[in-house]
Structure formats: structure tokens, C-alpha cells
Specification:
Shape: globular
Largest sheet: 5 strands, parallel
Number of strands: 7
Oligomer: single chain
CATH superfamily of the largest domain: HUPs
Strand order of the largest sheet: 5-4-1-6-7
Radius of gyration: 20 Å
CATH architecture of the largest domain: 3-Layer(aba) Sandwich
Number of domains: 2
CATH class of the largest domain: Alpha Beta
CATH topology of the largest domain: Rossmann fold
């Protein structure tokens, strides 16, 4: 099932779905279905444009981000730990002498988790397994732990969960390893609804601490309607999250 979820991510969501559409266009062209080619080509062009502008990005991602408001640090006193979910890593980083390094998303989450844990005297549980791909042998949890220690966070307050491949396994493994009843959960705001449901399924009381907000918070300008890779990437993240929510509901949440 994990493999199927990856296939969906890579080929049924942007940009993979547009490669599939291109293959269909080639087939239709060879079959001389010119009207179908024109319709599909127009649909692809319109879709690429819409998926690349801020208003559409916000329409898709804002409902996910707005489900849980930014945390009030005064509300986390009953918590036993801050759980930080990994958001990807970069292998063979030259500035790390060829070792892995945290992605921008992982870094954003970890910095926020550090701030919350440091201010409230809580341990951090860094969660994330080894990403798929050749030559990758360092877990996201290990990379997060190493950076926390480098930044001076006390070693006795850094815990790891490094066997998981997805959010559901994050929650399951942390429940088995540490059994914390109340946790502060740090992840990207758009990823929080699925994460909260996963941890609650294993009996944790979750205090959501969203970060990495991506939707626009001000007025749109003319430039907001210009295509951008940032908006396109965020649309992919939002669509992937909706698919993940549906997949978890069908697969795990009975």
C-alpha cells in the first residue's frame, strides 16, 4: 500500500499527471483525433496556469491551514513532549561533507519545535525515517537530533523515532516507544489535520502547533495572477494532503 500511495503522489498529481496527459495527447494525435487533442491540450494549459497562481493555491491550501490556529505558548503546560515531524531531507549535501541535511520544510518545523521546547522545558521527539532513494542511509530524525545538539539543546531532552515512512507510522511508533499522553505536535499547517487525526487514533491528546503557513495573508496584486513555481509546489502539497486524508480515512480510520 505504501508503494501505491507513492505512485498516486508521483503520477496522479501535478506534475506527473501532466506527463500522463502528454502521453494521451501523443496517442490521440497518432489516431488523428484532432478535436480531442485540442480539447485536452486546452485543458492542460488552463490547469497548469490555474495551479500556478496564488488565488487557486490559497483556495486549496487555506482550508487545511486554517483548521488549527497558531499556538498560544501558555496553552502547552500539560504537555509531556514536543513532537516534530520531518518534512524531507537532502542527501549528499556538500556543505555537510556529503552527509544529509534537512530540507527547508524540515528546518522550519524543527526551529519552531526548538523554540517551543526550549521555552517550556520540554523534550523534543524528532520523527522521521530514512527517505527512499539510492545512497540514503540517514533518517530525518537523526538529522534533526544532530542539529538540535549542535544548537545546544540538551542531549537528555532529545528523543527520536526513526523507523517511520509516513505520518501514520510516525504516530504509531511514537505511541509504542514513548506513550506520551499529551503532546505538542509541530508540523506544517497544511499537514496538521491529517497529523492530528493520526496521533489521536493512537490515544494521544494533541496540542497542535502549526508552522510553515503558505497561503497569502494580505491582498492580491497583479503579480498574484502571474504563474510561479512556488504556487505550483504549494498546490501539489495541498492536493497531496487531500489525497492523504482520503487514503487514511479509507485505509486506517474505521
Amino acid at each position: 500500500m505504501f508503494f501505491i500511495s507513492k505512485l498516486i503522489d508521483h503520477f496522479l498529481l501535478p506534475p506527473g499527471i501532466f506527463l500522463a496527459a502528454a502521453a494521451v495527447l501523443i496517442f490521440l494525435h497518432r489516431k488523428k483525433k484532432e478535436r480531442a487533442v485540442r480539447i485536452l491540450l486546452a485543458a492542460v494549459c488552463v490547469s497548469i496556469y490555474l495551479f500556478s497562481i496564488e488565488p487557486v493555491r490559497d483556495f486549496l491550501i487555506a482550508p487545511l491551514e486554517n483548521k488549527y490556529p497558531p499556538i498560544n505558548t501558555a496553552d502547552i503546560e500539560p504537555a509531556e513532549a514536543v513532537v516534530c515531524l520531518g518534512g524531507g531531507s537532502i542527501p549528499f549535501s556538500p556543505e555537510e561533507a556529503g552527509r544529509g541535511s534537512l530540507s527547508r520544510v524540515s528546518m522550519k518545523r524543527l526551529v519552531y519545535a526548538y523554540r517551543l521546547a526550549d521555552k517550556n522545558g520540554l523534550p523534543v521527539i524528532a520523527a522521521g525515517g530514512v527517505p527512499s532513494g539510492p545512497g540514503r542511509d540517514q533518517s530525518e530524525a537523526e538529522l534533526m537530533r544532530d542539529l538540535l545538539l549542535e544548537l545546544g539543546f540538551p542531549e537528555n531532552r532529545v528523543l527520536t523515532e526513526d523507523e517511520s515512512r509516513n505520518t501514520w507510522e510516525n504516530a504509531r511508533n511514537i505511541s509504542r516507544l514513548y506513550g506520551a499522553d499529551t503532546i505538542v505536535l509541530v508540523t506544517s499547517a497544511f499537514h496538521m489535520p491529517r497529523s492530528v487525526r493520526s496521533f489521536e487514533n493512537f490515544g494521544a491528546a494533541v496540542i497542535p502547533a502549526p508552522t510553515d503557513f503558505r497561503s497569502a495573508r494580505g491582498r492580491y496584486t497583479l503579480q498574484s495572477f502571474f504563474p510561479s513555481m512556488t504556487a505550483f509546489s504549494d498546490v501539489h502539497a495541498a492536493l497531496r494532503e487531500y489525497v492523504g486524508i482520503i487514503y487514511y480515512a479509507l485505509r486506517f480510520l474505521r
